[in-house]
Amino acid sequence: MRKLVYFVATTLDGFIAGPDGSDPTGPGGFWSPAECYIRHLVEEYPETLPGPARTALGVTAEGTRFDTVVEGRKSYETGLAAGVANAFPHLRHLVFSRTLTESPDPGVELVAGDPVAAVRELKRTGGKDIWLVGGAELAGALYGEIDRLVVKLSPLTLGAGIPLFGRAADFDPRLWELSDHTVLQGGAAFLTYDRCRA
Ligand SMILES: NC(=O)c1ccc[n+]([C@@H]2O[C@H](COP(=O)([O-])OP(=O)(O)OC[C@H]3O[C@@H](n4cnc5c(N)ncnc54)[C@H](OP(=O)(O)O)[C@@H]3O)[C@@H](O)[C@H]2O)c1
What we know:
The chain is an alpha/beta fold. 21% of the residues lie in helices and 29% in strands. NADP nicotinamide-adenine-dinucleotide phosphate binds next to strand 1, strand 2, strand 3, helix 3 and strand 6.
């Protein structure tokens, strides 16, 4: 069965963004990826690059891992604020929201219902894996459905920010098995963990 994969950039202290929820990798942000990090994404995960980045870098590869991306409304609006109504036109793109009523782009499907039920339905259909972009609140709601974690770990600490599964996630310890890792020059690491199912 296809997996739900939380493929996410985190700091050493487990944050995916600063406390204000703005885009840390955008202009004026504090989190700028190194060249080798971008190169690794291009080579291994080209489908996770937003459309404008794919165009700028001349990337046309379909990628082998994901054909569907799911994200929370706040993460989606980070792109929207930058003028990008569909950052992933090359993927099936679902945005979870109980407040948005009209999709800003015909390629973006709004889902108002329960994310767990929606993801279970996606898993039942065939295809490549499903990329959970985040943010943290959606990842917290989908915690029990995540089969694989790909942590793009940056050699950066924030002290405070939005944690990997949000501030409202339940205490629910789970074990994960390291299945792949790549350490990049400069200290960033891509760590792949599969959920242990005892
Ligand atoms: N480091 C990374 O790789 C990475 C990746 C993605 C995002 N981010 C960062 O994460 C931040 C945003 O994350 P966030 O945790 O604040 O928000 P988020 O998870 O992106 O979005 C939260 C919204 O998603 C919808 N949602 C969440 N749970 C839901 C549920 N159970 N049912 C239906 N809808 C649900 C709700 O939208 P409504 O209020 O409309 O109902 C909720 O307000 C931004 O700063 C972004 O830059 C970082």
